[in-house]
Amino acid sequence: MNVIFRQFKFLWQQMPKGYKQYYTIYMLISVVHVFIFLLLPLIYRDIIDALTKEHYSPEKIFLYIILTLAGYASIRIWSLINIYFKEKMKKIIMDKLFHSVLEMDSAHFKSREPGYWASIFSKDIDMTSNMYLDFVYTLPAEGIALVAILVIIAINCMPITFVILSGLAIAGFINYWRDKYVVPYYDKAQEDFRNTIDIVNAYLKGVGDLLHNQAENVFIQKLKERFVIYSNHLEKYFKKDSISEYFISVTNEVTKMASVGLSLFFFIKGNFTFGTAILLIMFSSTACEKAKYLVENFKWLMNFPPHIKKVQMAIESPQLIKSKQNISSDFIALNLNNIGVKYNDKWVIRHFSMEIKKGEKVALLGKSGIGKSTILKVISGSIRPCEGKVEFIYCCPKIGLLSQRCYLFNRTIRENMLSVKPDAKDEEIIEVLKNVGLFDWFRRLPLGLNTQIGQLGKLVSGGEKARLSLAQLILLNPDLVLIDEPFVGVDKERKDEIMQYMKKFLQDKTCIIVTHDDDIVKTLALRCVYVRGDSL
């Protein structure tokens, strides 16, 4: 529970002041709802007792109807309001996470697999935002309601209280057994699943090289083995969990039936009125349901800490960039010394050496899947070579990568541009869009720079994605430019126009190009390097 409270404190600190006031009021309103729904059975008891005495009480019936309608209407209205606040808080957390990752030290960022960061921006952020749902802030009120119901039952009939507490104790013991002996199977299954995803991400980074080296069958076999382990743990969990759920349900139903029997027994004996018997039956059922609700939601809350922890570590990461002393435009040359990269114990590149001097434009040529893109990934630092060394003479330059896979965020055009240059002005962004041939497209957008482009740019065309990535590269203004099939999806007329601008842009830069397009080689490259199999 300490973990839950610490992480709840972290989430509370992310809230703007107005949101904190809203959630505080909402918790107080939840307590009011509790007292309304505690009062309703008491009024109902009085109505039943009055009717048994052939006395009609229109005032109490009217009060019962009004309180019922007011209580349910209030709950629905506040729940709808809460959906709005929950989505707003999700966006606030997402914005903080996004900017924190952008400011993160690249070495710290690359120390994690891509799947780790993808899961934070998908599943982890969704799970974290659920902590802003209304049920979390009604749990204290539900606990108050359970205690109040047990007190009312104890005042009217202690034996029924004993039966309910006994049932709750048995259900609690079963839940304890489930947490100790059943849930670990689920945790193991989730760990197996995460490991499987990590394996998939690791292999996907070199899928072209896998196919070239005919190693995909080994990958598929490993994936099947991991999936069998995952499914075995999950099957054991579901079998044992269904048994524990069955016994909990039986315990609750037996407790309710015993409470009903005792209520009617003491009514027949004359210990209390028929209205009180109905009241005790209603409260007995409610007590079981409240206890079950609290236990289930507290257990559900225990699923959140791993997800919140990942989000918290990313937002509060100590590995933020404090300076850029290691990055300089004064580098002299890049040396690749006997570079070797292998996937699944098969070498894709080996004994690869090359020297590129500052200001050179080099094209890497060769068959598809030969490992050219892998070389660019080694230079950019996105993968580490198994052998050899990447050496920047004198200092490390600022590196920009323009890939055939466009890595765009599910944000606005402006935010995607600011991700590479946080201090860029709107005028500068628009000028760059002109240079990459997107100005006419941009002018037709109703929201302009505030236009959302979707996950990985799925709301724009392939050609527009390629040119937006090029615009990011120009804004970044790197010293060493790595280009991998940059104009996929761009028509020839637009491509020629952009290449002329790129020629001017790359004039004083060092550039390495991977392409099969002769026009790009003739326009942009001065030297060609042919890659053959596992060597230069």
From TrEMBL:
<keyword id="KW-1133">Transmembrane helix</keyword>
<dbReference type="GO" id="GO:0015421">
    <property type="term" value="F:ABC-type oligopeptide transporter activity"/>
</dbReference>
<dbReference type="InterPro" id="IPR039421">
    <property type="entry name" value="Type_1_exporter"/>
</dbReference>
<keyword id="KW-0472">Membrane</keyword>
<dbReference type="InterPro" id="IPR036640">
    <property type="entry name" value="ABC1_TM_sf"/>
</dbReference>
<feature type="domain" description="ABC transmembrane type-1">
    <location>
        <begin position="25"/>
        <end position="284"/>
    </location>
</feature>
<keyword id="KW-0812">Transmembrane</keyword>
<dbReference type="InterPro" id="IPR003439">
    <property type="entry name" value="ABC_transporter-like_ATP-bd"/>
</dbReference>
<keyword id="KW-0547">Nucleotide-binding</keyword>
<dbReference type="InterPro" id="IPR027417">
    <property type="entry name" value="P-loop_NTPase"/>
</dbReference>
<dbReference type="GO" id="GO:0005886">
    <property type="term" value="C:plasma membrane"/>
</dbReference>
<keyword id="KW-0067">ATP-binding</keyword>
<feature type="domain" description="ABC transporter">
    <location>
        <begin position="334"/>
        <end position="536"/>
    </location>
</feature>
<dbReference type="Pfam" id="PF00664">
    <property type="entry name" value="ABC_membrane"/>
</dbReference>
<dbReference type="GO" id="GO:0016887">
    <property type="term" value="F:ATP hydrolysis activity"/>
</dbReference>
<dbReference type="InterPro" id="IPR003593">
    <property type="entry name" value="AAA+_ATPase"/>
</dbReference>
<dbReference type="Pfam" id="PF00005">
    <property type="entry name" value="ABC_tran"/>
</dbReference>
<feature type="transmembrane region" description="Helical">
    <location>
        <begin position="21"/>
        <end position="41"/>
    </location>
</feature>
<feature type="transmembrane region" description="Helical">
    <location>
        <begin position="61"/>
        <end position="85"/>
    </location>
</feature>
<feature type="transmembrane region" description="Helical">
    <location>
        <begin position="262"/>
        <end position="283"/>
    </location>
</feature>
<dbReference type="GO" id="GO:0005524">
    <property type="term" value="F:ATP binding"/>
</dbReference>
<dbReference type="InterPro" id="IPR017871">
    <property type="entry name" value="ABC_transporter-like_CS"/>
</dbReference>
<dbReference type="InterPro" id="IPR011527">
    <property type="entry name" value="ABC1_TM_dom"/>
</dbReference>
<feature type="transmembrane region" description="Helical">
    <location>
        <begin position="160"/>
        <end position="177"/>
    </location>
</feature>
<protein>
    <submittedName>
        <fullName>ABC transporter</fullName>
    </submittedName>
</protein>
<feature type="transmembrane region" description="Helical">
    <location>
        <begin position="132"/>
        <end position="154"/>
    </location>
</feature>
